[in-house]
Amino acid sequence: MNKIEHIGIAVNSLNKSVPLYELLLNTSCYKTEMVASEQVNTAFFKTGENKVELLEATDEDSVIARFLEKKGEGIHHIAFAVDDILAEMERLKANGFVLLNETPKKGADNKMVCFVHPKQTNGVLIELCQEIKWV
């Protein structure tokens, strides 16, 4: 794992939270994106080399909606950038970690992603992210 790629924060409303984070971080939201496969709308902020992703549920049965119902707004996951997501997934599985998806899937912000089960990471949902390279 190379670095923290972003911190994901679950929110009830992007309309309310984007202006709050723009003021808090003193920067504009640089990108919004709907990720239909995850049933979320996302908003991204960059401050220095760090990124923050806000996540809003688009369906009441989505993972984010269930998280918000159970825990309320707050940190949902920490994402780490990797050079080779398949190799990193194999390394983690070989060391006994349980992955929430067997193959990488398309995530937000031009990334292939995979999640590590939080029961094995002290309750923290870990996301692996690899930039999709276009030829």
Q: Care to describe what's here?
A:
- The protein is of the alpha+beta class and 135 residues long.
- It has one domain: 2,3-Dihydroxybiphenyl 1,2-Dioxygenase, domain 1, CATH 3.10.180.10.
- Helices cover 23% and strands 38% of the residues.
- The chain has three helices and eight strands.
- It has an eight-stranded mixed sheet.
- A hairpin with a 4-residue loop joins β6 and β7.
- The mean pLDDT is 95.
Q: What fold name stands as the CATH topology?
A: 2,3-Dihydroxybiphenyl 1,2-Dioxygenase, domain 1
Q: Which structural category fits the helices and strands? A: alpha+beta
- Describe the biggest sheet? 8 strands, mixed
**Pattern of helices and strands:** EHEEEHEHEEE
What's the CATH C level? Alpha Beta
- CA-to-CA gap between the ends? 24 Å
Index terms:
eight-stranded mixed beta sheet, 2,3-Dihydroxybiphenyl 1,2-Dioxygenase, domain 1, 8 strands, 135 residues, 3 helices, metal ion binding, 23% helix, VOC domain-containing protein, alpha+beta
